[in-house]
Amino acid sequence: MTAGKPIKCIAAVAYEAGKPLTVEEITVDPPKAHEVRVKIDYTAVCHTDAYTLSGVDPEGAFPAILGHEGAGIVESVGESVTNVKPGDHVIALYTAECQKCKFCTSNKTNLCSSVRATQGKGVMPDGTSRFHNAKGEDLLHFMGCSTFSRYTVLADVSVVAIDPKAPLEKVCLLGCGVTTGYGAAVKTANVQKGDTVAVFGAGTVGLSVVQGAKVRGCSKIIVVDINDDKKTWASEFGATDFINPMKDLKKGETIVDKLVEITDGGLDFTFDCTGNVNVMRDALEACHKGWGQSIIIGVAAAGKEISTRPFQLVTGRVWKGSAFGGIKGRSEMNGLISDYFDGKLKVDEFITHRRGFTEINDAFEDLHHGDCLRTVLDLSK
Ligand SMILES: NC(=O)C1=CN([C@@H]2O[C@H](COP(=O)(O)OP(=O)(O)OC[C@H]3O[C@@H](n4cnc5c(N)ncnc54)[C@H](OP(=O)(O)O)[C@@H]3O)[C@@H](O)[C@H]2O)C=CC1
Ligand SMILES: N[C@@H](CCC(=O)N[C@@H](CSC=O)C(=O)NCC(=O)O)C(=O)O
Ligand SMILES: [Zn+2]
Ligand SMILES: [Zn+2]
């Protein structure tokens, strides 16, 4: 009934950096060729949404509809869409997978170039927006997803159909945080049985690295976080040790000294899940000489740069990065859903808060409290 027509629906609009979102009625245009319109049922708020809203994202532009950790049901598709159909249950993918570009066919990366340039400018691949406010002004898209709207339009390469038995109110988390951390451990780093691992930052991303390391049988999984309240979670997700650098170090001792001491020379793998460039340096320098690898996952603000003595790299430590855990969304998401059904991948455990969509600004507040991993918003409320 709605196919081919504009839809009026509720959305949360970020009009200005650093200001609360405005929940209001917007108009969502029908999908054009190679586009899909999705009714979003559930979305979580990721730290990256808060990062962009704060104004420190070099790609952040306003007014925009943020949100990228969402799941819903396809309402209609534009011409030439073959990978999904109306009624399919889908997860939005901020890392597209066209399966044709130089990146997708390289078998070296999950980064896809098909829509990334326009995605970074907040528009659809044809350079225009599908969102308009009541004044008729265009609203920008975000990360190719814009899940903070009851209806959104995505490029077909940015959508994956999933097993309809998967509960959308839970697996929406596979749209970012859980997949990112888990994939960073099992794909980007490809940690192995017996490896030693340190994870800096015990949010959803860091704790998902921990569960990946546990699945692979790593011998030591050390979580480093400045908040003691994260200790119980760390242990529940599989950490063997927890260090709070604010209180667990001797006078004059650094976190690098401590980690190197308790691991007989340093770790096989470390992961930054904080976005703090000083932590990124510590994570690299805590790696074992000769082979230790440090994976940067955290997103740092505009203008921030990483540094270390080149000698750290000369002597065999490796700095790597990971986006969306190295996971190719369209090819590999259903594998993660199977792991979830088989009890190998924890997802539900990250949902500490649930709210109606109109409470979205409270969900951003939740992020700043130590008792929150993810708040899932119900778009029907
Ligand atoms: N590369 C990618 O594909 C992706 C990157 N990200 C990025 O990953 C990072 C983590 O995301 P998420 O887990 O959602 O975020 P959270 O904010 O939930 O987790 C970060 C954790 O790090 C802790 N922390 C802060 N400073 C330090 C420090 N100096 N040393 C140790 N721990 C510290 C925080 O403690 P406290 O709560 O007390 O501040 C918090 O527990 C973010 O930067 C996010 O933008 C997210 C998804 C995908
Ligand atoms: N826009 C930022 C970069 C933000 C960033 O690094 N995003 C991550 C995902 S964060 C998800 O919560 C990512 O996958 N980056 C790869 C990409 O292609 O965007 C900036 O310009 O610094
Ligand atoms: Zn995210
Ligand atoms: Zn591609």
Short structural description:
Residues 18-377 form the Enoyl reductase (ER) domain. With 381 residues, this protein is α/β, with parallel strands linked by helices.
Overview of the molecule:
With 381 residues, the chain is an alpha/beta fold. The protein folds into two domains: 7-175 and 346-378, Alpha-Beta Complex (Quinone Oxidoreductase, Chain A, domain 1); 181-323, NAD(P)-binding Rossmann-like Domain (Rossmann fold, 3-Layer(aba) Sandwich), CATH 3.40.50.720. Helices cover 24% and strands 22% of the residues. It contains eleven helices and 17 strands. The chain has helices at residues 47-54, 116-121, 168-171, 177-188, 204-215, 231-237, 255-262, 277-285, 310-314, 329-341, 360-366, and strands spanning 7-13, 22-28, 35-44, 69-77, 89-92, 131-132, 138-139, 151-155, 159-161, 196-200, 220-224, 241-243, 269-272, 293-296, 318-321, 351-356, 374-378. Strands 3, 4, 5, 8, 9, 16 and 17 form a seven-stranded mixed sheet that branches. A six-stranded parallel sheet has the order 12-11-10-13-14-15, sandwiched between helices. Strands 1-2-6-7 form a four-stranded antiparallel sheet, with no helix packed on it. Helix 4 runs parallel beside helix 5 (204-215). The two termini are 22 Å apart. The relative contact order is 0.15. The model has no long low-confidence stretch (mean pLDDT 98). Bound molecules: NADPH dihydro-nicotinamide-adenine-dinucleotide phosphate, ligand LAXINWYW and zinc ion (2 copies).
